[in-house]
Structures are given as C-alpha cells and as structure tokens.
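Throughout our pipeline, every protein is held as a single compact record rather than as scattered files. The record that follows is passed on verbatim for readers who wish to inspect the format.
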Amino acid sequence: MNASENETRILITGAYGFVGRHLIAHLLAETHDKPTRLIAVVSPEDTAEGHEHLFRSTPVLPLHPAVAFLAEAGTQPESREDLAAPASRGEGIVFLEVARADLTEADAVTELLQRTRPSQIYHLTANSSLESESSRGTDSSTIFGTDVQGTRILLEAASHLSPFPRILLAGDGCVYGSVDPARPAREEDPIGPLWRYGAYVDSRIEIETSAKAYRALAITARTFTTVGPGQSSQCTISGYARQLARIWLGLQPPQLTVGSLEVQRDLLDVRDVVRAYRLLMAQGECGEAYNISTGKPVFMRTIVERLCLISRATFSLVNDPARSLSAEIACSTGDTLRTWAAIGWQPRRMLDETLNDLIDYWLETEKLDGGEQRGAKWNAENLPGS
C-alpha cells in the first residue's frame, strides 16, 4: 500500500462485531483534520456480503459524508470527484478498507501489518463475552486458540514495525473476579490466579499477561459490561430486550426467560465505550491498564424492571439455570479515577437512555423480520402507546 505520509492509518480487528461497528462510526464522525484510512480487519467468512455490511444497520451506524469505500484491500477509489466537496470544507477524507485476515495465522497477520503499516491498532477481536451465551460451555481450546493466540501473533507482528504502532487491547473487567460493590476494583488490584471462573475469564487474564511483554506498544482497556443498540441477543441484557420486543410485537408468549437477577454489573453504553477507546488511543500511556467503568454496579433485577417499564409489556418471569452460569461473579465493577485523570473520560449516557435505545433497536429489527405483518397475537392490549 502506497499510503501518503500525512495519512493516519488505523487498523481495527473484530470490525464486524458489535463494538467494532460502533467504533468505526465514531471514528468516522470524529475525523476532520487530515486524511484517514480505516482498515477494518475481518475473518474471511465475514466478508461474504461485502464491505457495506459494516453499515447495514443504518439507525446504529450513520454513514459519514466523507467516507470512500475501497472495493478491495489496498486499492484506491475509482473516482475522487465525490470527495472534492468534503475535502474543500476542510474535513478529513476517510478511506474505509476491508481486509480479510485470519488472526491465528502468523504469516497473514505479518503481511497485513507490513502492507498497511498502521500507526494505531484497535484490537477488539474476542471469542465471546462473560455475559454472552457463546461463552457458556465453550471449549477452552477454542477461546485460547482464537483470542489468546491471535493477540500474541498481532502483538509480535506489530513489534517489528518501525515506528511502533499504538495498540489498544479491549480487555474485560471480569479479570478482577467478584468484587465488593462498596469498593470498585482498581487497576493496581491483582488479577488472577486468585480465582477461576472459566475459560473466558482465564483467556482475558492470559491476554493481559501476554501484553506485558509488549509494554512499549499496548494499552489495555478493562471494559466492564457493555450494552447498546446493535448488540447480539446472545448477550444477557440485549437478549432480554429482544424477548420484550418480541412480546411487544406478539411474536412470542408473554414470558421473559432470565438467569440470575441478583448479580450486579457495571453497565456502559457502547457509544461511551468507543469514545473512551479513542481518547485512550490518543492520550493513554502504553504499558498501563485503564478501567472503562462507572463504579456504580446495578442489580440485574433492576435492569429487568427498567426494561419492563420502557417496553410497557406485561409478562411473567421464567428462570433458566443455563443462563445463570456467569453468576459466579456476583459483582463486577471498577473504579474510574485513573481513567478520568488520564483522559478526562466519564460516561455521558444515562442507563435508561441506553436501555430505551436497545429496546428501539430490537423493535425495529424484529419489525423488519416480519413482526408488523404477523401482528400482536398474545399481548396486544399492553403494547406501548395502546
């Protein structure tokens, strides 16, 4: 790739994921001063629908007017005429390149980094999350083979670039284990091996251990429970919101299947999270870890109650023990002082705003999937606005 010297090159792994799509939208919106190339790294199987799939959910990811899609990795747009207007206004031109790469293949990762030579890398790839159905019962070799080994390969390949890129590793606050809600976890607190909560938590600890060998490159963001529009229903809170949307539309009986409601989670809006990532990339200190958190954990029962009020649906609760496996971590929350001092970041979005947007997202998604045509079969008298 013959990139201009004054072009900012940002590589993002896990670009088709929930956080990845929000991060791309955020970076597009915040790019104004110079040409920028976003390299969205996806696994080969994720590119079947083409690069526009990154923006398929338009309510979540509005297109930036100055973006130019690159049809294939390393190419230039066929014409720059459409870019003249935004460039003349002094806005940064953004080139979005989609790169296919298997992060567990060292040669492929090395070739990708040598070709694109990014100055910033957001490493978002993760097999699952603590609150995801996909993390429950997942074979440890699968998680370690993709997440941990992929991170090691990426860090090693990046260490051979000159100058070094800055790398933000999207970690997880679960590495602290269960904490006292009155004393949120601090970055200097020990992480593992004081507890074992399963393959997912072990993999997050191992990723941070690997990163210590690359302190000159890597910043670790210990992100707590992230929610927001566009999130998979495999994640606990988004799954509850989807169920309520389906009840609202009459697509399922008025029964909400839940796991443990007594766990406490430090909840963050994904749009606040990606803003923190951008600020850490710009101002964070390599070799350090930073909590992305509120310091104010919320009971899952409170979340369900708020979702109920927002959706106005009437339903009964059905407990599913299979959804309670992550309850071993009774409370997960982090202190925010170091992050605030370093980058001046604090969450902006209120919890009810996030939950409302999540419900709206699932209502729109289920409607597009045929909910409006099927009609409200079970609970029509309790639909919002009726």
